[in-house]
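look at this record:
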Amino acid sequence: VLELLEELEDIVDSSVGVPLTGKIMVDAEEILEIVKEIRVELPDEIKQAVWIKEERQRIISEAQQEAEKILRDAKIEAEALLENNDIVIKAKRKAEEIVKYADSSAKNVKVDTYEYLEGIMKNFQSQVSEMNQMYVQEMYDKIQQSLGNIVRTVDDNRNQLKEMAFKARNMELDDIPTAPRMQIQYDQGQEYEDEI
């Protein structure tokens, strides 16, 4: 993925600028092909997130079934105890404790399941946010800086030409100097010259 992002940066850096617009021309098919490759190479965490979404309902359903089983077992045990007349009072107390424990266990299973799933989603969200900060934002900042440098250089060249035109108004034709070679410098250090 890092190599593909660097390839995108290279395409943007080497693209031809559209004069006076601050925009560049790129090959749409080439960009789309790289985006498709990035999708193929995305981390397994994204696939895991889809799996988690599908598994969430199954995990909750299993927790509910387990809670219902505990309640059923508790009722069966309570009914068995009630059949013995000598321990009816103890049986009622025991049944209440078992039902209370079953309710508490079912609640804990649900809470633990929700907290576990939320933790996984939080981790995934953090990783995606980190990828955005590390790669996408950095690439955008570099493009913005490069285009800003080009705009400033063109502005400097225009100011030079305005100054030369002003001076030329007060000179004889033979005394007017030849226009200098205008320079456009990009942030990679490469310079391109062209005569006016």
User: Anything to note?
Assistant: DSSP finds four helices and four strands in the chain. Strands lie at 16-18, 23-25, 181-185, 191-195. Helices lie at 2-14, 28-41, 44-82, 88-168.
